Backbone:
């Protein structure tokens, strides 16, 4: 049943396989709650890992964590294997690395503001053109001034700097309005309240750490704990989109390889698109198209195909459709739309079967030779080889303890960046302004002191008793004699200076 170049999915009227060379053509796993989507996801993830393809999967409920433990061969698993004739079925476990954006159930996942970039960040924040322009100016200003943007604190500090120097910055970079800066700040606050302050920072995740291989050639399954992340849909969308964008930037162009370089499973994919702006949807569509040529397969897991925008849905070639309910007109329409997306099987009505599928059953259509979709088959999905259901907390901790990434990302780093530089700059400017102000105050005080001293001197002189200007007879005689003698001395001195004139008279 197991083939080296294919993943065994289950049994319809024939064995259903997913060819590895078409694994990067993306896929979709859909179905109502309780129909077996998670089990299907685990089976496909195990197949890729065993074939040497690294896997990254968002684990919404924690059920996927059991892939790290040896399967327990439960009765239903053994029975299912017998029903489909899966003679190669055996218990197994798969090398697993646990990740958690909040760092509680796995290694932290971080990136920096600079690595995220203004374009992607503006899409996530749902900024309009004017606000996006200000964000671009902020990043350009940071680049020109050597400011590192590592976390949200750095970006907020940068925006404050721009608002405070809007006049000068507007001359060089373009118009910056304080109201626009404030709007960007408010969008950042929403992201921060959802946990964005824990996502942005160092040490940033090296995307190549999601592509590790064991010594026997088996690829690691990276499981992202997303139970808490589910409550922060904007942050969840930010993480998923950044991962895909980062893969596109890092991986080389390889076309269609014999097997994918990496496969992503994004559970609860509707969270990525709910109330998403068109610009964000366009970005996701673009990234999904481009990463295929990098050898990356993206598989969305959601309850209904209508949760995925048509532009993105058109890129998903490998499909597994579990049961859908059709109790309301809206649900009936969704069933018809799902049925129309499959290549028809003359043996049954696809729309009718979708509502009749039991747990563990699914309609399967994958790419076959020359990339042609297979005729849809009513398939009983194979049971996983690993443990079905979540690990116990102590089991998870044991797996994390022996992880090859233990100690690499677990402790955050807060080195000098824009916040510290701008804070120091602000403090220096404030100190300089304070010194100048104090010098001005000192000068004014000295001037005031001088005026006060002069006024006091005038007051002191005015307070002294006036002396009489009239002379006594004796004083008058003495004054007259003194004046006569002074005149005589002046003439003698003058004549002495002129030389012989004294002798001629």
Residues:
């Amino acid at each position: 049943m197991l083939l080296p170049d294919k993943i065994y999915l289950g049994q319809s009227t024939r064995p259903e396989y997913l060819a590895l060379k078409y694994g990067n053509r993306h896929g979709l796993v859909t179905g109502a709650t309780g129909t077996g989507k998670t089990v299907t996801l685990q089976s496909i993830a195990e197949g890729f890992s065993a074939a040497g393809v690294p896997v990254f999967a968002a684990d919404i409920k924690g059920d996927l964590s059991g892939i790290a433990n040896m399967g327990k061969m439960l009765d239903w698993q053994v029975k299912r294997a017998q029903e489909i004739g899966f003679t190669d079925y055996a218990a197994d476990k798969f090398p697993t690395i646990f990740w958690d954006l909040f760092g509680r159930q796995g290694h932290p996942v971080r990136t920096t503001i600079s690595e995220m970039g203004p374009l992607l960040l503006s899409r996530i924040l749902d900024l309009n053109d004017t606000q996006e322009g200000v964000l671009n100016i902020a990043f350009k200003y940071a680049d020109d001034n050597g400011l590192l943007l590592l976390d949200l604190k750095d970006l907020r500090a940068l925006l404050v700097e721009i608002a405070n120097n809007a006049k000068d910055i507007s001359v060089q970079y373009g118009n910056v309005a304080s109201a626009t800066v404030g709007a960007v700040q408010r969008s950042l606050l929403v992201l921060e309240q959802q946990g964005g302050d824990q996502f942005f920072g160092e040490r940033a995740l090296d995307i190549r750490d999601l592509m590790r291989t064991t010594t026997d050639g088996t690829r690691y399954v990276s499981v992202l704990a997303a139970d808490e992340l589910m409550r922060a849909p904007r942050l969840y969308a930010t993480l998923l989109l950044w991962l895909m964008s980062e893969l596109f930037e890092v991986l080389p162009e390889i076309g269609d390889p014999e097997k994918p370089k990496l496969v992503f499973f994004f559970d609860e994919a509707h969270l990525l698109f709910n109330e998403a702006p068109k610009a964000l949807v366009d970005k996701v569509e673009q990234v999904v198209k481009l990463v295929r040529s990098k050898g990356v397969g993206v598989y969305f897991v959601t309850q209904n195909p209508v949760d995925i925008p048509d532009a993105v849905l058109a890129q998903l070639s490998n499909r597994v459709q579990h049961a859908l309910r059709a109790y309301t007109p809206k649900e009936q329409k969704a069933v018809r739309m799902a049925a129309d997306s499959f290549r028809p099987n003359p043996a049954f009505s696809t729309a009718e079967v979708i509502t009749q599928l039991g747990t563990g059953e699914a309609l399967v259509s994958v790419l076959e030779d020359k990339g042609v979709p297979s005729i849809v088959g009513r398939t009983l999905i194979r049971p996983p080889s690993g443990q079905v259901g979540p690990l116990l907390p102590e089991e998870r901790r044991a797996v994390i303890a022996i992880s090859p990434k233990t100690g690499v990302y677990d402790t955050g780093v807060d080195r000098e960046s824009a916040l510290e530089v701008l804070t120091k700059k602000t403090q220096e400017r404030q100190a300089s302004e304070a010194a100048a102000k104090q010098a001005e105050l000192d000068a004014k005080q000295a001037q005031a002191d001088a005026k006060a001293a002069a006024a006091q001197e005038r007051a002191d002189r005015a307070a002294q008793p006036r002396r009489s200007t009239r002379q006594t007879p004796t004083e008058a005689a003495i004054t007259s004699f003194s004046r006569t003698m002074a005149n005589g001395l002046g003439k003698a001195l003058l004549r002495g200076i002129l030389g012989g004139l004294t002798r001629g008279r």
